[in-house]
Amino acid sequence: MANVFKKVMLGDQGLVVIFVLAFALVSLFVPNFLTERNMLGLLQSVVTVGIVACTMMFCLAARDFDLSVGSTVAFAGMVAVMASNATGSIILGLLTALVCGGVVGFINGFVIAKFRINALITTLATMQIVRGLALIASDGRAVGINDPGFYQLALSKLVGVPTPVWVLLVLFVIFGFVLNRTVFGKNTLAVGGNPEASRLAGVNVDRTRIWIFTLQGIVCAIAGILLASRITSGQPNAAIGLELSVISACVLGGVSLAGGRAAMAGVIVGVMIMGIAENVMNLLNIPAFYQYIVRGLILLLAVLLDNLRSSALGRR
Amino acid sequence: MPYLEFLHISKSYPGVHALRDVSFGVEKGAVHGLMGENGAGKSTLIRLLSGDHRPDTGSEIRIDGEAQKYASTRDAFAAGVIVIHQELQLVPELTVAENLSLGRFPANGGVIAARRMFAEVGRKLKEAGIDIDPRRKVKSLSIGERQMVEIAKAVMLEARIIALDEPTSSLSSRESEILFALIGRLRAEGKIILYISHRLDEVFRLCDSLTVLRDGQLAAHHPTLEGVTRDQVVAEMVGREISNIWGWRPRTLGDVRLKVENLSGDKLPEPASFSVRTGEILGFFGLIGAGRSELTRLVYAADKRLGGTLEIDGAPVQVTTPHDAIRAGIALCSEDRKHDGIIQGRSIEENINISSRRHHTRLGVLSPRREVAVAEEFIAKLKVRTPSRKQDIINLSGGNQQKVILGRWLSEQGIKVLIVDEPTRGIDVGAKAEIYELLYQLAEAGMAIVVVSSELPEVMGICDRLLVMCDGRISAELERAQFNEHAILAAALPDTRTPDKIAS
């Protein structure tokens, strides 16, 4: 019995099992949890973290790190609002935001890949630079949206499900596919597993890393646009600390910080576990201050589990 | 009763029986050889002895009649067992003395008594006959010296049983001699030395007794080596007679496939030129550091090139990255498989497909079916021993990893020139023969093959032509008919040395 338990927990699907168990328990014991309204609210609350986690997964899988995501989300949101206001066209505003996000990501990737500067340091720098840009552009204040059509991005629904949730689901599918079924995805995992061997096997390591960061920037812009629409303004101080939630969710989902190991299903579960924990604590009226402690503990437990799993794998 | 006894040792991992009911004993004061092909179970046995892994139930390891039930390497330490792995466990930034005192620094209230430490370690090194200054940092030592420090560690911990895993694989002959002298002294002190090696010469020279493993089972146990022949041991290892391990056969050579002119790089003192013909196996021989690997890495653009041109089939090709090299039809299997070859943590399937993958897509989407088919094809063709294509490559033996890397290049379409650096390093006799046979077949199919090796018998055995390098220059060129051990060594040695010093 104990052995079966161990096998299930440390197997590939261990996290999914934990997730299903936790979900069932919470549904039974927490009032108002398993209602349509709460479920949609839960999904909406994980949209930002979930979207950014898609590409953070690639970053971590390639042994890199991106701390600038929170700033990029805020910056892109600002740009979307300001450009829409200035041009009077929402489409133009959104495009500008996507391009700006992509440029930030490209710069990250280029500096990291070509100048061989540690990703942690590079993105720590861009995190501050980009946040500074957002603050300067808005003079530190929130920027209101002129065209009410912009709100519709977050408010509109399709088959009863809000658009941002659809965007999240589509991105999950796309990036799951990219990771497993494209040369780019496989190369990402190979680069994380052994960069030098990958280079000698003909993988263009620099280009792969630049692409990863560029995609990360674009995806952050998508998250930033949806966030700005939801909070009905461009906020230069939005998404502070997002990078930590996103990395936590990825690690919780079994993405190895040492590179070379990642799975979309795991990341989805990681994102959902974090979301459920927060949702349940809100439903139970646990004060926000305690929520930090619980989130920290969940992350620690996840890393411990991951460690046990790696050593179990190593013994094969 | 033997001092160290293995009784009915079995060990299974998911999908693999690594060891099956292996029993033998070793007497005190003996050097005991442990031989077997890669994957035969030697490493597993050592892992069990060192407490790294635990044996299946029913297995027992006894030391001095006492059953050992240790659960970690720490317990094995306490029982007097020390394993010295191929990859050494030293801290490069610390001094020799610090490394040897780690975990038990002589200290006064937390402050290290440095003078006492250096004096103590210095005395012990001297006693063991190891001539290394304890104040030197480990990173400044040669591999051979580091190995000595590892052994000194075992001596200082008063180990009763010392297992050495392929200790001479990266040592020069002179360093090996010092190691052998040290082993002799430890043996005289009544210690047990378990000596794991692929080198028959060394085993026959050093060992008092010998155990041969094959496919996880005991193939032979020789309490004494008197009357045992090398051929017999080889036969026991492979389970069949290998009459001629090289198996070279004549081939018709075609036109020049690869022509390298005035290639230069940071590590080559002067530009080098050479060419290989279709169907030819060209060898590069030289001492370690002679520039063989450096030159071939430049051909592949693995390192930065300062000048020089390449021609393939008479047409010039631009090669500035490994990716370009592959497109031009040049492939390289690096010398350091672990660092430059395998992608650890990923499956055999992915390791085979990493380069050829770009041919397996349609509209940018990979075909998993194609990937599986390619992986299965080369696992079968190259006889990779594994329970599944999904196995992490790190779990394979060296020979099987090498086959996977070769599979990587064979699955790539249009490779015309295959450069193999140390094709059989750390690989056992049976797998060696398989790899040589593979190289012949590739050459017969029209590939030009460049073999870089520091094993003279190997290059003499399998190459059609040989280039000898010395101090970064090509110092001699010999056709197969001219191969002669003395001439090759003479060309490989810098003027200051004489051939007989390393002729062994």
Report on the structure:
The complex is a heterodimer of chains A (316) and B (504). Chain A is mainly alpha-helical. Chain A has a domain at 43-241. Chain A is 75% helix and 3% strand. Chain A has helices spanning 2-10, 14-29, 36-45, 47-61, 69-87, 90-114, 119-138, 152-155, 163-181, 183-193, 195-200, 205-230, 242-252, 264-283, 288-314, and strands at residues 143-144, 157-158, 161-162, 233-234. Chain A is globular and about 65 Å long. Chain B is α/β, with parallel strands linked by helices and 504 residues long. Chain B folds into two domains: 4-238, P-loop containing nucleotide triphosphate hydrolases (Rossmann fold, 3-Layer(aba) Sandwich), CATH 3.40.50; 256-501, P-loop containing nucleotide triphosphate hydrolases (Rossmann fold, 3-Layer(aba) Sandwich), CATH 3.40.50.300. Chain B contains 17 helices and 24 strands. In chain B, helix 5 packs parallel to helix 6, helix 12 (348-356) packs across helix 13 (368-381) and helix 13 packs across helix 14 (398-411). The longest helix of chain B is centred in the middle third of the chain and has 16 residues, at 173-188. The interface between A and B is medium-sized, with 26 and 34 residues.
Principal-axes shape call of chain B: globular
Low-confidence stretches of chain A: none
State the share of residues found in helices of chain B, binned by percent.
25-40%
**In this structure, how is the largest beta sheet of chain B organized?**
6 strands, mixed
Present the secondary structure layout.
The complex is a heterodimer of chains A (316) and B (504).
Chain A (H helix, E strand, L loop, with lengths): L1 H9 L3 H16 L6 H10 L1 H15 L7 H19 L2 H25 L4 H20 L4 E2 L7 H4 L1 E2 L2 E2 H19 L1 H11 L1 H6 L4 H26 L2 E2 L7 H11 L11 H20 L4 H27 L2
Antiparallel strand pairs in A: 1-4, 2-3
Helix pairs in contact in A: 1-2, 2-14, 3-14, 4-9, 4-10, 4-12, 4-13, 4-14, 5-6, 5-7, 5-12, 6-7, 6-12, 9-10, 10-12, 13-14, 13-15, 14-15
Chain B lengths: L3 E10 L2 E11 L4 E6 L5 H8 L10 E4 L2 E3 L4 H6 L2 E4 L11 H6 L5 E2 L2 E2 L1 H14 L15 H14 L4 E5 L7 H16 L3 E5 L3 H7 L2 E6 L2 E6 L7 H9 L17 E10 L6 E6 L3 E5 L6 H8 L5 E8 L2 E3 L4 H7 L1 E4 L3 H5 L6 H9 L4 E2 L2 E2 L1 H14 L16 H14 L5 E5 L7 H16 L3 E6 L2 H7 L2 E6 L2 E7 L5 H8 L12
Parallel strand pairs in B: 3-10, 3-11, 6-9, 9-10, 15-22, 15-23, 18-21, 21-22
Antiparallel strand pairs in B: 1-2, 1-4, 4-5, 7-8, 11-12, 13-14, 13-16, 16-17, 19-20, 23-24
Helix pairs in contact in B: 5-6, 12-13, 12-14, 13-14
